[in-house]
Specification:
Chain A has helices spanning about 5-10, 45-50, 90-110; strands spanning about 30-40, 60-70, 75-80, 115, 120-130, 130-145. Chain A is an alpha+beta fold. Chain B is an alpha+beta fold.
């Protein structure tokens, strides 16, 4: 049965207050209910008992609850950048590609369980026209396995 | 780059920098699949809401008979970001190391409308 369906099943006695669970072999280490706001909207509840009116309106209780689950992280993600400079744009790209490949080789050659999601290569080209520097930047993204 | 062996994150970063990486950015620790933690948090929040509804109903001399609606409000996914520093800059100080957090928090808020008899 779905956990929420199980919880929603009526007529079950429940414990009050913060709860802690431990799942052996799993990532979940602790659960705590950290906040609770209760809004009582028993529309027509008092009036229906005293005057018997408004019986078509459903009687409800509205509860807002916040729960927090603490888990241990299982992956680390980071980005690596390399830099290559050359007067020639294509040479700069080549330098960056070579440097990037070298870094990726080093990273993959280290500990196991490392994957490479994507890599991007960007290059900046600067030139001076007269006394005013003109800087342009281009980038391209390379999808990889 | 994704590293699944968190004990070796530092070694991987060192290897990248030693191989010529200009910088290492945006180091994050997270759950590869956060859906399980989120579902657990939803279940706990709903269970606690039910407990409160039962207590209120009992105090009011009535009983909870069912659910009219459940709305999931704020939900926070667990991601831990290190200081946004260039790891290459930290190499000079061996005392400064990237340490994974022990725990990440997933929080979920639900609003449940219960019908009462």
């Amino acid at each position: 049965m779905d956990p929420i369906e199980r919880i929603l099943a009526p007529a079950r006695s429940r414990e009050e207050g913060a709860m802690t669970i431990a799942r052996t072999g799993g990532a979940v280490t602790a659960v705590a209910v950290i906040a609770l706001v209760v809004v009582l909207t028993m529309q027509g509840f008092a009036t229906s008992q005293t005057a018997g009116v408004d019986s078509a309106k459903p009687k409800t209780i509205t509860v807002t609850s916040t729960a927090r689950v603490s888990t241990s992280p299982d992956i680390a993600v980071f980005k690596v950048s390399v830099r290559g400079e050359s007067a020639d744009g294509s040479q700069a790209f080549e330098l960056v590609a070579r440097q990037g490949a070298s870094v990726l080789r080093a990273v993959r050659g280290g500990p196991r369980r490392i994957s490479r999601r994507s890599r991007s290569v960007s290059a900046a080209r600067s030139s001076i026209e007269g006394s005013r520097p003109n800087t342009r930047s281009t980038s391209r993204r390379i999808a990889s396995r | 780059v994704i590293v699944r062996d968190l004990d070796n994150v530092g070694a991987v970063l060192d290897a990248a920098v030693a191989a010529g990486a200009d910088g290492v950015h945006d180091i994050r620790f997270k759950l590869e699949d956060a859906s399980g933690a989120r579902i657990d948090a939803v279940a706990e929040a709903v269970e606690h809401a039910r407990n409160q509804a039962d207590a209120i109903a009992e105090a009011a001399g009535t009983k909870v008979t069912g659910v009219l609606s459940v709305t999931e409000g704020r939900s926070r996914s667990p991601v831990y970001r290190t200081a946004n520093a260039m790891y290459a800059g930290l190499i000079a100080d061996p005392a400064t190391r990237i340490v994974p957090p022990n725990e990440l928090d997933t929080s979920v808020t639900v609003t449940v409308v219960w019908s009462v008899s």
